Amino acid sequence: MKVEEFDYELDESLIAQTPIKKRDQSRLMILEKETGKIAHQHFYNIIDYLEEGDTLVLNDTKVLPARLIGEKEKTHAVVEVLLLKNTQNDEWECLTKPARRIKVGTILSFGEGKLKAKCIAEKEEGIRCFTFLYEGIFLEILEELGTMPLPPYIHEKLKEQDRYQTVYAKEIGSAAAPTAGLHFTKELLEKIKQKGVNIVYITLHVGLGTFRPVSVEKIEDHKMHKEFYHMSQEVADCLTETKKNHKKVIAVGTTSTRTLETIMKQYHEFKECSGWTDIFIYPGYHLQAIDGLITNFHLPKSTLIMLVSAIAGKENILNAYKIATEQKYRFFSFGDAMLII
User: Fold this and answer.
1) Mean pLDDT value of segment 29-33
2) Do the Cβ atoms of 24 and 183 come closer than 8 Å?
3) 257-275 pLDDT per residue, tens
4) Are 209 and 196 in contact (CB under 8 A)?
5) Is domain 3-63+160-340 annotated with CATH 3.40.1780.10?
6) Do 57 and 260 touch, CB atoms closer than 8 A?
């Protein structure tokens, strides 16, 4: 299957540059995966499509203010570093620009020396490994010096940093937000709970794969980066009970989907577990864990549009995206949402 098959035309003006004023006021497209039928709602109407006994699965990862702008200690050349993965103690894998100038032994300085980083290894695709040097608490220093690592298609400055976090973000460790969850407010989640819908949380820390384009011709040749996930026994029991009662498991976001499908594929049941996943879901994949998905509108030829095509069918998705562009939906991270049921 060719990557080109997942392309579509998008006017740049439809790429949302800033979050909507109230999270749940964004638009919501309803797509029936069996028929391809489409309806138009607002996100706060999501409650009408959830039934008592259904389970909503949210990813509670929290985005690090992981983008640091510093300089080389000797030459003062400006360098951008994006923290991706904490390998041990104060050692991190980082996406670095310009990486070619960063060699083993290079020392970078941030915040006039409040934070320093020494390169200890060089990897491919702009990745460098650093040991960070500082006094105090690392996360507090990062909160002070770092900014949210917004995707490259967002050119506006984010005025409120917490708008690139979900209202339920808890477990620190992501390089990007699980953006489908950005539409929820605490009030909406409470209303959903009052309806008798279960709300549970899993964790998947979003990593480099989010920033990596598909550079091969055939999608089968694409290799996903590994990302860390965790699910508790309490959540596993709830999901098992949901399935037993023939109710729906609705994943919020592609990250929740990938976590649940990874666990079911590996263990053939929901169970408490942690691990690393590089699961790649594209058409031909048979869903084992989820019954529906809340998601945003994704980039052309991305692994995410391939994932939603596996759930709803490629023709249905491309038709839905065509209608979304005609109806002036807002696209990508700060854009509108889709419910696939």
Assistant:
1) 98
2) yes
3) 999 999 999 999 999 999 9
4) no
5) yes
6) yes
